[in-house]
Amino acid sequence: MVKLILRETESIQEAxxxxxxxxxxxxxxxxxxxxxxxxxPSEVRRRARLRAERRxxxxxxxxxx
Length: 65
Prior knowledge:
By secondary structure, the chain is mostly helical. It has one domain. It is built from three helices and no strands.
């Protein structure tokens, strides 16, 4: 959960900008987009497997150099 304490001399625009940065850093937007639609467990596993394959391929390419 993101908490934002307003500073005395801070304008609303600055506070909103700071809030957006906090939300972005916390990964809340990414999580909301991910949960926006139901994803079948098989799709979750497939996406995780593909991500792991890409990561392994990238690490193999870096090790070869």
